Amino acid sequence: MLTIPGVEITVVKELVPRGLAAAGTLGIVGCCETDNANQPLRELSSLSEFRDLFGAGSLTSMPEVELAFANGLRAVVVSALPQSAGLAANVTVPISLTSAADDTRVDQISVRARAAGTWGNDLRVRFLAKGTGAARAVDVFVFTSAEAAQNDKPAETFRNLSTASGDARFFMSVINAESGLIRLPAVMPAFIAGGGSANPQNTNPTAAATLLSGGREATVAEYRDALERLETQPQIDMVIASNNITSTVTATELYSTIISHCEAMSRKAQNRIGFGQIVPHGTSRPNIEAAKSMASVLTSDRFVLTAPHGTVGAVAGLISGQQYFRSPTYKTLRGIVAPNFDFTDGDLRALLRAGLLPVDKLPRKGVAVIKGIATSQEQVNVQRTADRAVRTVQNIAIDYVGLLNNQAQRSALRQRIDEAFNAMFREGALVPSADGLSPPYEVAVTATNAEAAAGIVRINIAVRPVRAIDYIYATLNVKAF
């Protein structure tokens, strides 16, 4: 057969792996002012988005979100518990009602925390009626602790509000629109509709503030249901359950559920690390033995337990904002008030040996992470680097499914993985051994005859994540001159 001289061109489509989502997306479950139980989950990249979507009260009921963003959080996915989960703290306040026909009666209005949970049990309110006739007005003060109430330092102050139900500045309407801590009945009493007024009975500006009570945390089962919703968001690699559970046993049960969630998602190459904290201890020094007991039950490469209480959001935000291979050790945390107690060196050693991540005040650092470890005592950045490697391989390999029936394609897959790991090496995530004899990573894509016949290709990888230098030894040679 005679072949006519010329050029034949064959176009081969080259597989370009999709970009891998940035590390540091936090999934969080907890009680919010407005839930999204019947809405698709969405990723939020700012605190204002969170406030607008879930209500201003959620900033207090879920304080981890604000702390996380203050420390560099990249993005958050919120699975809010339904309104039926837990109970909101409440109290009734006596009030005088005057109808449009000038009839009067004494009644009560309910004051409720903006969201469910025991956080509302710390709230205190004072309603103050002042003036007479057309000059009547109402001041409202909201305190977040007994100490704040004793020192008369309200977290929220609303002055000179109207008592007239038809006024745009009617105190019930203003509180519901502007307070981030409490809410009043959304519907005003029918007795004052059409031009009536309402006036709190208290006229003493130094009267003790009224305490809210009855707030209750959600159950572990309700948290578990909310965690399941996070399974639909593959970009999440950090998980928190926002809570104020005071029982060590119940808190440990909840955190065990988080570990199970993270391990299940990691088996699907959607690797996650859970974060928790010891139970609330107020301004007192925490119970070290109870903290050690929690950590001993929660031992895992996939869980971080922080101490003291109130630091977990800041720690998660710090880790999110850093490159995934950076250690949080000795890094400063923002937004945390220095505790009124100091961990002793003995406390810190005990917490570290138990696998907790302690936070304490350090010279020239302020409030900072002492050592960034999981409860297994593995460094958090080492586990995150290994997780990143797994996600990278999965992200590349998924596009080669159905194409690896020859050596050329298997070689192409290996080259893609090699290219990605080399990039991790260049940015400092992977390192050779200290003596330089072992490489930062190894990759092999193989298939035996039996595996090829069964449609299986095996990827074997070994990576050496960079480790934090936690201790420096100095040798001083003293010479006489």
Tell me what the structure shows.
Strand 4 (90-98) and strand 5 form a beta hairpin. The N and C termini lie far apart (95 Å). This protein has an eight-stranded mixed β-sheet with strand order 2-3-1-12-13-14-15-16, sandwiched between helices. It has a four-stranded antiparallel β-sheet with strand order 9-5-4-10, covered by helices on one side. 28% of the residues lie in helices and 20% in strands. The chain contains 13 helices and 18 strands. The model has no long low-confidence stretch (mean pLDDT 91).
Helix-strand blueprint:
Blueprint: E1 25-30, E2 43-44, H1 47-54, H2 58-61, H3 63-70, E3 75-80, E4 90-98, E5 104-113, E6 124-130, E7 137-143, H4 146-150, E8 156-161, H5 171-178, E9 182-183, E10 197-200, E11 210-211, H6 220-229, E12 238-241, H7 248-266, E13 273-277, H8 288-297, E14 303-307, H9 312-321, H10 345-354, E15 357-362, E16 366-369, H11 380-397, H12 407-427, E17 441-446, H13 449-453, E18 458-463
Parallel strand pairs: 1-3, 1-12, 12-13, 13-14, 14-15
Antiparallel strand pairs: 2-3, 4-5, 4-10, 5-9, 6-7, 6-11, 7-8, 15-16, 17-18
Helix pairs in contact: 3-9, 6-7, 7-8, 8-10, 11-12
Task: Briefly say what this structure is.
The protein is of the alpha/beta class and 481 residues long. An eight-stranded mixed β-sheet has the order 2-3-1-12-13-14-15-16, with helices on both faces. It has a four-stranded antiparallel β-sheet with strand order 9-5-4-10, with helices on one face. Helix content is 28%, strand content 20%.
